[in-house]
Amino acid sequence: MKLEMLDQIDSTTMNRRSLLKRAGLLGLTLPAAGALLSACGVSGADMTPDEMEKGNQSKTASTSGAPLAAAAAPAAAGGVTELTVTAMDLKFEPAQLSAPANQPVRLTFINKGAIEHDIEILGLTVDGLTTVTPPKAMSDRATGLHDEATANKQAYAAAGSGDQMVIEFTPTAAGSFEFVCLVPGHKEAGMKGTFTVTGGDAAASATPMAMDHSVPMPAGTGEPYPADRMPNPEVAAPVGTRAPQTVKQTVEIHEVIGYVDEGVAYKFWTFNGTVPGPMIRARVDDYIELTLVNPAENMMPHNIDLHAVTGPGGGAEATLIQPGQQATFRFKARHPGVFVYHCATPPVPQHISSGMYGLIVIEPEGGLTPVDREFYVMQGDLYLEGGRGDKGLRAFSIDKMLDENPDYVTFNGAMGALTGDRTFKAKVGETIRIFFGVGGPNITSSFHIIGEVFDRVYPEGAQEVHTHVQTTLVPAGGATMVELGLEVPGTYTMVDHSLGRVSKGAAGTIVVEGEENPDLFEVIAPAAPIS
Ligand SMILES: [Cu+2]
User: Fold this and answer.
1) Is residue 318 part of a domain?
2) How far is the CA of 344 from the centre of ligand 1 (A)?
3) Are residues 375 and 460 in the same domain?
4) What pLDDT was estimated at residue 221?
5) Is the confidence at residue 148, as pLDDT, over 70?
6) Distance 302 CA to ligand 1 centre (A)
7) How many A from CA of 222 to the centre of ligand 1?
8) Distance from the alpha carbon of residue 218 to the mean position of ligand 1, in angstroms
9) 314-352: per-residue pLDDT in tens?
10) How far does residue 294's CA lie from ligand 1's centre (Å)?
11) What is the number of helices (H) and of strands (E) in the chain?
12) Under a CB-based contact definition with an 8 Å cutoff, are residues 306 and 315 in contact?
């Protein structure tokens, strides 16, 4: 299965070699930065979060009496307008900035969020762009955007969690300009504001060339975009009757372009390159040592929150990693059941919708009841810019996600992921178990198999079994196990019985082969004219 790695699409908008070069240039600016900072008595690059807090407060306090009430008022220092803007998850403070035209601005960009953020003033051409203090580290993504902004004479800064960057520039035109965070989804989630340039020649206001990088890929061009289907994940082997032990599990994050529908592709964010991610399986009282790897070729920070964990964020805080990093934590499996895991990096619903969910099965002591076959299915809802079915490589739609109006509600990530040559197969006389979870982020499922009744359901993954169930409700971020015997041959369709979603992808089939069972089901008279 060939999957196009993220690099190949991003090479259209940036050149990774130039990024590295830019990183080198940033290093060269350090001595100059030190000289400038010594005038202020604080080295921004070495500030603790407390110091950053104080620095921010003192600036705010020193400007509180300034006349522009709505805007962060400039603090003039020898003709330089000092501005500070703080990025949080997911907003800017303040969201209004102001500076005079044709005078230098020193912008301190502080990141108090948990992940990398950046800022670009869209459409404002600036002169004399310099980096006063670079951040301690800058991701390849941000380095590329910085490179591009510099080439286009646009003000851009970026910083990782707890870090900051100081830039200087001179706005060349008066007007009102939008500033945004360019991390995919962040602008739509609220990370935007207005940069007002006062004075100068008011007629020469905002240039229309605003470059918006907040969409991570080109929107659908209308041309079909051929993409491979991602593989379905395997069902992990049953635990059996063994004693508790330490289970080591490594999960690697892959950002890959894959098939959604005929001619429709999407840049999925995945655990191990499948949607859902790998099934993790252990028993109660096991210690699970989980290593999350975010390879350097990825563009986004990610992490993992497992609902089977007792501890902060389900592991999310311990595993928040940038591209090129890995992290390991250990937890004890205290509760038997079947649990969802997912990425919990802001904006969380976008990471989940993009494919970052899976199941962890914790078997009770002695193991689950043996069955002949087990299957692994997860439902998820996906939101894309443009009309449903529009061809092309499509971008994520924050607006549709907030409206809970998905283009696709899929079983295992794509239309037809569990039909045709990917159908599940079984035989008459066998018993099967389906591990069924809902990644969401938004849509609950009314899970049902057309033409069958579940003999046993573990509602919400609980240990108390319900019997003889037609349809079971599975919440977003929840999971269940259903068990049933197969008595009559035929093709059985698994659905979300909110049936409008079947045409959005919420369907998969089980083909059951074997002897007819006329005692249970027999056609007496096939369709014919009324006699
Ligand atoms: Cu993620």
Assistant:
1) yes
2) 6
3) yes
4) 61
5) yes
6) 4
7) 28
8) 20
9) 999 999 999 999 999 999 999 999 999 999 999 999 999
10) 10
11) 7, 32
12) yes
Kindly give the distance from the C-alpha atom of residue 99 to the centroid of ligand 1, in angstroms, as a whole number: 37
Residues sharing a CB contact under 8 Å with residue 177, sequence separation 6 or more, in sequence order: 121, 122, 123, 124, 194, 195, 196, 197, 206
CA 148 / ligand 1 centre spacing (Å): 25
C-alpha 106 – ligand 1 centre gap (Å): 33
In which domain, by residue range, is 179 found? 81-200
316 and 195 in one domain? no
Whether the model clears a pTM of 0.90, i.e. scores above it, the answer is no
Domain total for the chain?
3
Per DSSP, which regions of 53-139 are E strands? 75-77, 80-88, 91-93, 96-100, 105-111, 117-121, 126-133
Same-domain pairing of 89 and 36 = no
> Which of the two residues, 69 and 179, has the higher pLDDT score?
179
The CA 356 to ligand 1 mean position distance, Å, reads 6
Contact yes or no for 234/377 (Cβ under 8 A): no
CA–centroid distance, residue 139 to ligand 1 (Å): 16
Distance from the alpha carbon of residue 343 to the mean position of ligand 1, in angstroms: 5
Domain co-membership, 409 together with 489: yes
Confidence band (pLDDT; 50, 70, 90) for 138? confident
- Cα-Cα-Cα-Cα torsion 344, 346, 352, 353, nearest 10 degrees, comes to 170
CA of 155 to the centre of ligand 1 (A): 28
Alpha-carbon distance 213 to 225, whole Å? 21
d(CA 301, ligand 1 centre) in Å: 6
Q: Does one domain contain both 149 and 270?
A: no
